[in-house]
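Subject: Sanity check before I submit

Could someone independently write out the C-alpha cells for this chain? I want to compare against mine line by line before I put it in a report. The sequence has 231 residues.
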Amino acid sequence: MTITELLQEARDLCDADATSYPATTILRRTNSAIETLVGKIQEISAFPFDDENFGNIAEGTITLEEGISKYTITDRFRHILEIKVKDINGYWNIVEPVSQEEDGSIVETEEARTGLPDKYRIVGRTIYLRVAPVAASVTLTAGLLFKYTRTSYQITSTDVTAGTLVPGIDTAYHITIAKMTALPYCKLYKKDRVAQLEKDILIETKDCVNFYTNRLKNKPTIITSNPISFR
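---
Independent answer below. Compare away.
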C-alpha cells in the first residue's frame, strides 16, 4: 500500500473520514504503529531490520582526536551493532564491547591508556574507548566506524501529500499497520470492533516478527530466556 491507501484503509476499518479522523492524528498514530512493529522485529529477530525509506545505510563515522577517548554519536540509533577503528595501515579493527565486570572500571582506570582502541562502552549517546587513539596507531580522520539499528522512518505530511511513499516494512504487513492505526479510534467510537482488531494485530504481529526472524535462514536465531509480549 502507498501511504494514501494505508490511511484510507485505516479510516475504512473504523468508518471514519478526514473530518472525524483528522490528518495530523491519523499520521501520528500510523508512525507510532510502524515504530511499534519495527521495535518488535528488532527486539527478537536475528535480522538487522532497517526501514527501507531511509536514504542511507545505518552506519556512521567519527573523526578521532589524539589522546581523546570520549565521543558523541549524533545519529539517531536504538542499538549499536558494531564498532571498528581504522589502524594506520588502513585496516578496520573490531572494537569489542566491555563486559559487565569491566564496565565499572573502563573510564576510571583504562581511559588514560593510548594506542589502538580495543574495547568500548556506550552511555546514552557517548562512546567511551578503553584505549585513547593516537596517530601513531590509528587513522584519525573518519577513523571510527559504527553500525547501528534505528527506529522507523517518520512519515511526514509532505509524504502524505505526495501520496506515493510506501511504508518501509514488508507489504504483507501494511494491513497490520492500518489495523493498529484504526484501533485507538475504535476504542473511542467503535468499541464493537476492538476485540477483533486486537486479535488480528496480535496474530499478524507474531507473523511479522517470525517473517523477519527467518529471513536470513543461515543466521543463528537469537535465543532469549525472557518471554516476548506482543501486546
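---
OP: Matches mine. For the report I'm noting this point. The beta strands are 59-62, 70-72, 79-86, 92-97, 114-115, 119-123, 126-129, 132-133, 144-149.
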